Batch of 2 targets.
Target 1
Amino acid sequence: MTDVVVIGCGVSGAATAWELARSGLSVTIVDRYGPAAMASGWTLAGVRQSGRDPAEIPLAIAAVKLWENLAEALDAPTGYTQDGNLRIGMGAGDLPALKDIAETGAACGLPISFLDGASAVRDVAPAIAPVVAGATFCATDGHADPDATVNAYVAAARRAGATTLFGEPVIAVETAAGKITAVRTASHRIATGAVVLASGVMGDDLLAPFGADVPLDVKYVTVIRTKPVASTLKQVISVADVRNAEAACAGRQQLDGAFRFTSGIEPWSGAMHERNGRPIIAPPIRALAETIESFGTVVPAALDAEIDAYWCGLIDQTPDSLPVLDRVEGARGLFVARGFSGHGFCLGPITGKIMAALVKEEQSPVDISAFSSSRFAKAGASAFEPVTLHG
Ligand SMILES: Cc1cc2nc3c(=O)[nH]c(=O)nc-3n(C[C@H](O)[C@H](O)[C@H](O)COP(=O)(O)OP(=O)(O)OC[C@H]3O[C@@H](n4cnc5c(N)ncnc54)[C@H](O)[C@@H]3O)c2cc1C
């Protein structure tokens, strides 16, 4: 018998497991692959408060406060650095939306400003080519190393007593009289009174019996990583695609000097295969070419670096681009943290605290009323505003 089973060992599940284990509960983390095998490994790993829905900004602010001391708390490096985020507009038509983002962020307490013109942007980030029209700049945003962070959480959770079961999916969540009793994998039945489902794009099959599936539109993003080169870009950048209310491309230079950059989001065919026990989605050459073209136009130094790796990552997009952080009404002891819509890496540390508070029937450290699981069923998925410029 374990007090809590956490399904999914991305940043959300690993952070939740650590918070629960260090508060004295027995915890088992189950992942069909292993730590950071899906979005939390595929990610760009920007740690960004700016450019979010106002409902989500307090979560991101609370998360950044935790990021600032996370490596110490976990006693392991996270690769976190706080050098700011630039959301770039390429043309004059993009600038009103960027000014709105700066105003909304400032009203929520962020140190965010609007930079008018290429030279203002290049004063902050000389690596940006003089082809841009302006940008927002939020100084307390940053980035981190996603694999190091998730592994640091898992190691700290283990030191606090958590156990792990990797390489097997949970295939059923069992209940009796409306209460969680166990989870089953192909070879294990783990008796438990509580389950946190932090399973990213997967897991609808586990929630559907309780009427709690989250309406997700799963899309893909192409990611390219180069070999390390001299450090020229400290900020995370994204290029606003105002027409589609998304980011056209985004990128950063890792602390080791490697550029890591992404495309915008595209519809996903569903094709995925496994290699060495990890899920793989290969990008079409067209997407690679477009990603290189978009990012290289803005950060030309990236074009001289050698390609080291490329992959696709999946985005768990909800109708309002906000996550579900909630208990499940139909099954006492079942909790869900999914649907981060491409923004959940930054939120990991606060997601862990929120989910641990829900399991322990304590007050959430941040208002989570906007993230209920029932909001889509009540309003109908189509009732939500189209996605705003989150990127
Ligand atoms: C290309 C890309 C760029 C991104 N950029 C950013 C960014 O700059 N900043 C940001 O904040 N966010 C970003 N995101 C989003 C962010 O990475 C995710 O929101 C976050 O990592 C989600 O973490 P998670 O733990 O909820 O899910 P995941 O990391 O997807 O973890 C879910 C885990 O559940 C496991 N699982 C699923 N089903 C089962 C089952 N039945 N049994 C057992 N295990 C199961 C999977 O194997 C997986 O390991 C990006 C995402 C992508 C793909």
Target 2
Amino acid sequence: MKLLTPTTIGDLQLKNRMVMAAMTRSRAPEDGLVQEMTATYYAQRSSAGLILSEATNISKDAIGSPFTPGLYTSGQVEAWKKVTETVHDEGGLIFAQLWHTGRVGHSVDRSNKLPLAPSAIAIEGQRHFTSEGMKDFETPREMSLEDIRQTILDYRQAALYAIEAGFDGVELHGANGYLPNQFLADSSNHRKDQYGGSVENRCRFMLEALETICEAIGSSKVGVKLSPLGTNNGIQLEDPVGTFSYLIEKINGLDLAFIELARRSPDADLLPRYPIENDVALFGDLVKTSLIANANYDRESGEKELIKGKADAISYARLFLANPDLPKRFELDADLNEADPKTMYGGTEKGYIDYPLLNQKVEV
Ligand SMILES: Cc1cc2nc3c(=O)[nH]c(=O)nc-3n(C[C@H](O)[C@H](O)[C@H](O)COP(=O)(O)O)c2cc1C
């Protein structure tokens, strides 16, 4: 199977083309320190060609959800070192996913400070998970030019910390309606300055963040996740195809290790002006570096996607969550464990490090 053949991403040799996609598991205490069990969780999944870590806050200002880890204090760097060492000991590779949530947050988990965003526009018609239960989204505070400059520096510092913590590289979280995605979208960015308006201006924030990260740690250690047709967290673009075509061409110029493209959920309503084709079919040929295709793939459809030739690797989220030995199971075409939605976010070791390996008896 092509999925089980090696490939190169950046300067790294991957033992297979099965990437573990980033998954927030909400098990970090308030100080954003990953726990001992997090090292076990990732080490169990180190047969993936590459692991993308759960989204990790680049600063205190970046926090949008409780119980999520950070990469902005020396304590957090030390805690992540245990994770990266354990993964490397098991022969795995791991990138840190760098996260700024922008308007997808709530002041109750931000020391009573409003979330920051390109414009003061709240997400409507949805509620947000907070440490005090579900709450309506608040109207965020519009970022000043100084906030933008500081945030880009925070990305840079978090990337440096990631390397210090032993990560093999970083992935900028540019998908799913978080801050860089908010800058791209007409529904969340009404700015009149150089970060709003034209396609070029709306792409500026993400490109500046990527450039700065590349300058700090080297472009072969940097990837980005995009969800061009995704509408999560109130994201809508007037011209998604034009905007993402421009963005991907500019990203090509940065010589990153990879672009991960998350396909639109088949359950999401198709917005009027949005194309019916999926993101990989639409944008795959534009990507000049390694392309990691994501979302809703299984063994057969992942293999088919690789054979089509646009994608170099497939990232799996829920399948890796429930099947630590996923490559082995694909090799043997074995049965798969089902992910339990109740333990996806938050909690203990249950539903985190106790998914059984093939032929492993579950203790009851
Ligand atoms: C529990 C859970 C947490 C997730 N957290 C993140 C995250 O932190 N960062 C991210 O980019 N995507 C996140 N996602 C989305 C996945 O990376 C992936 O794009 C999505 O689940 C589709 O892939 P799949 O069909 O293989 O599950 C999460 C998904 C799940 C199920």
